[in-house]
Amino acid sequence: MDLEEYWQENKRFLAQVGIGFVVFLIGLGVVGATVGAKADEQAALVAGHKRDLGKAYFGRSERAEAQEDHDALVESALALREQVEFQPRAEFRGTPDQPQRIDTNHYLTVASRVRAQLMPLASRFNVEVDETLGLPEQSPTRTDEIERYLDALDVIERVVGAAIDERVVKVESIKVRLDPGLRGRKGVGTIERSRIVFEIHGSDLALQRLVAATQAANPQALVLDEVEMRRSRNDPGVVVLELGVLIARVTAPITEEEDAA
């Protein structure tokens, strides 16, 4: 069979194949022009982002501004810490220049001195004072607990001394509550909180003066988290003051240098 005869018999089929091939070529060109352009565009964007990642995002001025903000925040945090964190007096836990060895003997010595100073003074002015001073029956042995009870003794001496000066009727009870995180698995957190709660009976004026005395700088004002006054059920002429003093310690580091230390 020659080509002429083959063409005559299959020309319709061959024409359809030829048209399909042309359509395929046209479609391939359209796809290449659209999808290929999109792919090139996306590849260019990726390359541009890679170049941007290699550049410094912030310049010197931005870094200097960020450093100024950081220094200002650290200064503010340190100022707040100084106002909130309890600063014990030297006779209780020594000073940075003359640190005191913290042990049970020192605790007993300080506790005896505070009792020897407060109890006779209270008796002289007919002021009843909780003889336990809120201290545990068994002396603490752990160094961290000894430190906290020494801080509590500092607060107790100041508050009870002021109560005697104002001639209250009695200091009914004193309760020292250390932060439970000291013995807990999770720890004390960012701020350690120990509390001393006083129940004090006296005249309205005497108790108001006592609260004011706790805010005197000696060496710093005490942080009060509870001040509640009510009339005594047994004697309407006597006012009962529930006074809660917070002893705070900031345990989280504020500066990189402090963290490294």
Please, could you describe this protein's structure?
This protein is of the alpha+beta class and 261 residues long. It has helices at residues 3-53, 60-84, 90-93, 104-124, 143-165, 204-213, 256-260, and strands spanning 128-129, 170-177, 191-202, 223-231, 239-250. It folds into two domains: 1-49; 89-256, Ribosomal protein S6/Translation elongation factor EF1B (Alpha-Beta Plaits, 2-Layer Sandwich). It has a five-stranded mixed sheet with strand order 1-2-3-5-4. Helix 4 packs parallel to helix 5. It is elongated, with a radius of gyration of 40 Å.
Short description:
The protein is α+β, with helices and mostly antiparallel strands and about 260 residues long. Helix content is about 55%, strand content about 15%. The chain has helices spanning about 5-55, 60-85, 90-95, 105-125, 145-165, 205-215, 255-260, and strands at about 130, 170-175, 190-200, 225-230, 240-250.
